[in-house]
Amino acid sequence: MADVSAEIVSLSPARVDAWSALRHDLWPDASVAEHAREAAHLIAQADACCVLLATCKDEFVGVAEAALRRDYVNGCDTSPLLPVAFLEGFFVRPSFRRRGIARLQCERIAAWARRQGAREFASGALVDNTASHAMHRALGFSGTQRVVFFRKDLSP
Questions:
Q1: Cβ count near 96 (within 10 Å)
Q2: Three-class SS of residue 135?
């Protein structure tokens, strides 16, 4: 059951500071300022990406970002014929998890994706991130493929 005080709002110029801080919690390798510099681009791309924040009692507690992928998406039946909504980033502060916030965010993204012509919603998680796997299954996602990427350094 969703936390009755949870509200899902879109990224806007007034919310960039909160979004940047939450995004830094998710991806700490970039600074809060680096994340903030990406905000204007994402806000301008409302037809190609959906950026949501979750609030509880006036505190920003979660972020979800999805984009329409128009190229091949692993494990999806409709790509590349139709765009696929892809959950690019997702984070809810630990003390606010298991309250239905992730479900609310995913429902909003799914509704946005349908309006954009998507018929599938995809995501990914690292192989060892079993907590994310469980969350995805709880939200109705099903596993499609497992891939291990390799690289070889070709520098001299």
A1: 16
A2: helix
CA-CA distance, 113 to 52, in Å (whole number)?
A: 13
* pLDDT at residue 66 greater than cutoff 90: yes
Is 122:78 a contact under the CB 8 Å cutoff? no
pLDDT at 3 over 70: no
The answer to whether 96 and 60 have CB atoms below 8 angstroms apart is no
Its pTM stands at: 0.88
Segment 96-125, tens digit of pLDDT: 999 999 999 999 999 999 999 999 999 999
Residue 43's Cβ-count burial label (10 Å; 0-12, 13-18, 19+) is middle
Say how many C-beta atoms besides its own lie within 10 A of residue 6's C-beta: 20
Q: State both tokens at 153.
A: 């350094």
Task: Name the CA dihedral angle for 23, 129, 5, 67, rounded to a multiple of 10 degrees.
Answer: 50
